[in-house]
Specification:
heterodimer, A: mainly beta, 4-stranded antiparallel sheet, 11 strands, globular, B: mainly beta, 9 strands, 0% helix
C-alpha cells in the first residue's frame, strides 16, 4: 500500500494568512484527493488533484480559497488561503494508486486559526 | 450519489464478534460497497470492499444481502484496537469521478 507523508502535521496560524500543506507519496499514483474534517465531523471531499491540469473542486469549494497543485504523480499541495477561524480543521491527503484499488489516507494536517 | 445509513454508535465486548450494519437501498448495479475505519487521531484506513459476493480478508468479513440493499461488516473477535469510526461507502468506479464520499459512520466502542 502507498505510504503518504503530509507536512506540516499541525500548525497554528493567524487569521488572514495562508498555509500550504504538502503531500508526498512513496510511489506513483493515479489519483490524489484532498479532504477536510471539521471537529467532530466526517470527512468532506474538497477536490481531486489532477496532474498537469486544474484541480476538480466539489460543490462549496473554490480554487481561490483552496488552490491545489499536482506537478507529478507523487506530490501535491493544498493551500488554505486568507484563513479564518472557520477553516480550523484537519486536512487530509488521499491517494488511489490505480483505478480499482482502495484509497489510502495520510494522517492529516491539524490546522488551528486564531 | 447513492447514500448509506448506519447506526451512530455501537458497543462491543473485547474478543466477541461485532456485526456492523449498513443500509443502501438506492444502490446501483455498478456500485461497490467499501468499508473504511478511522482510529482516533489517524486518517481513515481501508478495511474491505465487495460487489455481490461475500468477501473475507485478514481484517474482517463483508456479508452482502442478496438484493444488495444492505451489508454487514463482521469483525470476528473485537480487540481494543478496533475501537474506531466505521464508514460504509458506495463507489462506482466507472462513475464520473468515482470518489469516496463519507457519511457519518458508526462509532464502535470496545469494552475490555
Amino acid at each position: 500500500s502507498a505510504v503518504i507523508s503530509q507536512k506540516p502535521s499541525r500548525d497554528i496560524c493567524q487569521r488572514g494568512t495562508s498555509l500550504t500543506i504538502q503531500c508526498q507519496v512513496d510511489s506513483q499514483v493515479t489519483m490524489m484527493f484532498w479532504y477536510r474534517q471539521q471537529p467532530g465531523q466526517s470527512l468532506t471531499l474538497i477536490a481531486t488533484a489532477n496532474q498537469g491540469s486544474e484541480a476538480t473542486y466539489e460543490s462549496g469549494f473554490v480554487i481561490d480559497k483552496f488552490p491545489i497543485s499536482r506537478p507529478n504523480l507523487t506530490f501535491s499541495t493544498l493551500t488554505v488561503s486568507n484563513m479564518s477561524p472557520e477553516d480550523s480543521s484537519i486536512y487530509l491527503c488521499s491517494v488511489r494508486p490505480r483505478d480499482n484499488q482502495p484509497q489510502h489516507f495520510g494522517d492529516g494536517t491539524r490546522l488551528s486559526i486564531l | 450519489d447513492a447514500k448509506t445509513t448506519q447506526p451512530n454508535s455501537m458497543e462491543s465486548n473485547e474478543e466477541e464478534p461485532v456485526h456492523l450494519p449498513c443500509n443502501h437501498s438506492t444502490i446501483s448495479g455498478t456500485d461497490y460497497i467499501h468499508w473504511y475505519r478511522q482510529l482516533p487521531s489517524q486518517g481513515p484506513e481501508y478495511v474491505i470492499h465487495g460487489l455481490t459476493s461475500n468477501v473475507n480478508n485478514r481484517m474482517a468479513s463483508l456479508a452482502i444481502a442478496e438484493d444488495r440493499k444492505s451489508s454487514t461488516l463482521i469483525l470476528h473477535r473485537a480487540t481494543l484496537r478496533d475501537a474506531a469510526v466505521y464508514y460504509c461507502i458506495l463507489r462506482d468506479p466507472g462513475g464520473s469521478q468515482g470518489n469516496l464520499i463519507f457519511g457519518k459512520g458508526t462509532k464502535l466502542s470496545v469494552k475490555p
